[in-house]
Structures
1.
Amino acid sequence: MAMQAPFRLGLIADIQYADCEDGTDFSGCEQRHFRNSLNIARNAVECWNAVGVDAVVQLGDVIDGCNAKMNASETALAAVLNVLSRSPAQRFDLIGNHELYNVKRDSMTASGLRCFGPDGLTYYSVHLGDRWEAIFLDPYEISLIGLSQDDSGFLEAQEMMRQHNPNVLTGAKDWFKGLPTSKHRFVPYNGGISPQQLSWLKTALENAEAQARKALIFLHVPLFEAATKAKTVVWNSEEVLQVLHSHSDTVVAVFAGHDHNGGYGVDAAGIHHITMNSPLTAEPGSDCYAVLECHSDGWAHFLPHGRACVESNTDGAGQAYPQLILAKGSKNLPGDSDERSPGADSQDSLAELQAMGFSAERAKEAFEAAGGSMIAAVTILCG
């Protein structure tokens, strides 16, 4: 029987394009290449078209907030969407903080952004082929940005700041002064997920589980601190992770952006968390996007182009991941090569294959038949 072709996704995060000279973030530490990010988006589309992706996920912050100050939001957004539209694949756009700096929620659809599901909500799920489910979340339902001051989500956000970071409400210039690291997430550029969305997420995962589908979670703000940093995490991430962990056999991975320096980690339930780096901070001449291959046997292969995912908490200077095997029990090392030749390292590879659920005998046969290549071994085992 011929092996079924994987469902392929094109992934990119935090393009943050603006037609202006290079600059830095508010701290002066992060170098930003505003115009070059559009060049990387062009490269991404060319790659996705060559590969033949089935869908594209744009993980939010498609244009930078400085466009609003320059009265250039509409033209900047049109420029990026013009590039992304050159891919014929279905596209899903996520809401990031910079979307909310530039576009009102009720104007997003008219702007060309595709942030809403068929029922008009900003959180929804779709089938990816026969065996996978994409679940899109909105981490700014509870937020200090993008909502009117009488909105329940805004009022709840204010109350969370009173409890966890009153610096935000007092107008302090330094939001983090005297704040323990555990509360660094409680700042306006992050947000929270409502109880209603959490309840919906539970149902969506139950449905995916009942249909024997593996699930991928997409949202702009990371959920797992080890895959990012303390300052870029969803306010009530523990509640969201609790829901995901209750369906850990269904949820394979969580994809986010927001932290331009990226990161990767595996949580206690074995769910992979990928925080993609931003094209905005990539050096001119380099790339920053990925292709995700979703295989019918329940594992996925993250194929980065350029430094699309690097070690967490390295300010973007750590080693890049040349690939990620996303399956229960798989271990991914930065700078690691797929070609793991038999020898001392082969025992670790065999143990990893067994942790993914394959018997010792089958793992050994496949690894040897693959000549020491983990990817080839997984393909044999899942073929």
2.
Amino acid sequence: MIRKTVLIVIILVMLGGCINQEANNTGIVISDALEREISLPKNLDRIVIAGKQTPTLANFAYLFDSSAEKVIAIENRSQSSNNFLSLLDTNFISKLTIEKGAGAEQISPADPDVVILMTSMKEQIGDQLESVGITPVYVSFETIEEIYRDIRIFGTLLDGVETAEKIVDFYSNTKNEIDQLISSSKTSPRVLILQIDKSEGNLVYSVPSASWLQTAMVEELMGQPVWKAEASAGGWMEISIEQVFVWQPEIVIVVNYQGRSVEIINEITNNPVWSEFLNNSKTMINPFAYDYQSWDQPDPRWILGYANLAHYLHPEIISTTFLYDLVRDFYHDLYGLEIEFIDSEIIPLVQLQIE
């Protein structure tokens, strides 16, 4: 009798193990940007993108074919009225159903399987979502290595693990090619990335955080980010025009997230104070390239921004031909657009001032 009881227990344990193993095989486990191990159902059919930098997150999501079907709602924080993702998904505009600044109360009616958020949104939104039983997954996309990691997170969520590796290979191979090309350069110019906006008719100047992608790209490309020592607090740091002159940059690259960099450059070069500085210092000033949005951000276009910076810092090595060829490869290989469309519709958008 005892033997039979033991045998039954063993069989039940074995069966239980099989059931648990099968259950595990039907789900996915990921480690997100906050190093949280998260168990999720295998079929994620209702994905929401919310919080700050949703345009960046949506652009990365749409590198994967399943996004048009699986991404059901996106918080409306678009930088540009010229919406690129509408080219890939005719229903994209209808997905911008979550108001800017929405909390869990506005997100939960979408009944998401998962909500993708930047790490900075944990306390503001993520904790709220968890309190009502909705799972957030965090990404950060702040450094090149984080971009690679977070692409792989998207690949797992969007049934595109192999696609994620192809995307990472595209980025790493292109970056390696640029790095190899400029390795023979003897120049290490003093560079200033300068965001310029208008407020009440006045120009407002700011520089990126020392820890951000913009700073890292300048250093990777053998440039000297003149603002780095002063910008350790995080976020965009507002500066005066006098500080620009004190830093004595050899190259100034203007960022404007409304796509007005060329317009602003034309304005400041006609300003007597700026004009005197530029003439006396021989400083070159150019826009950070922009098509549907600025290329300086941790967006899928970061690799275009990397090539854009390489062209400004090493124009004798990285030509405009190289840059435009990369634009074609990027939109064709990663987003599946035809070369004829890229040449007719996207290349003309690129704001690139040649000195």
3.
Amino acid sequence: MFLCFEGLAGGGKTTQANLLADYLRRTQEKEVFVSAVYEGEARKRVSDFMHASGIASDQRAVMFLFQALHAAQHRGVSDALDEGKIVIADRWRDSFFAHHLYQGTFNGDEDLMRQIDQLAFGSLEPDVCFLIDVPAEVAYDRYVQRERRVEDKGLELMGPEYFSSVANYYRKIAHDKHWHVVDGTKDQQSVFEHITSVIKKDV
């Protein structure tokens, strides 16, 4: 079983992914592998590398770095699935489109984006995907507070318009791909109960 959380930075994906992993370890008695490219200790290492190498201010260079990380993520997820583990991804391939379409990295050339995406992710898609849906302004406020707290020399703060664009893209793709949309403005326990109600039908 391959599960995924998508949504805006500050939406609560990482928290829910970890809660779900603990829940599945208890109830399924199987190993659970949580995959995330830019969270926890990995976040600091990647951020430090971007600044030390001088690529942090180059949008295209950062894109290539993250696609390299995504290719490694694909390998890790594929290996875990082959070993019979349940996998939870804190973001998968759609974040690439959500962010870079707004930034105009490819001048709107979605065919080129899909070729690069295919190199990183192949044809592997989650069995179940959740969109933690949070209004852009709420996610942006949470994001700013987190960045100030973490102080890890991360990417420059993304503005409110950026968050709004990404939120709109995620809602569209969630509709097109029939994701489960969860109201991320509710309290943590209510969000988790919504997620587990879906999981109980599929696991």
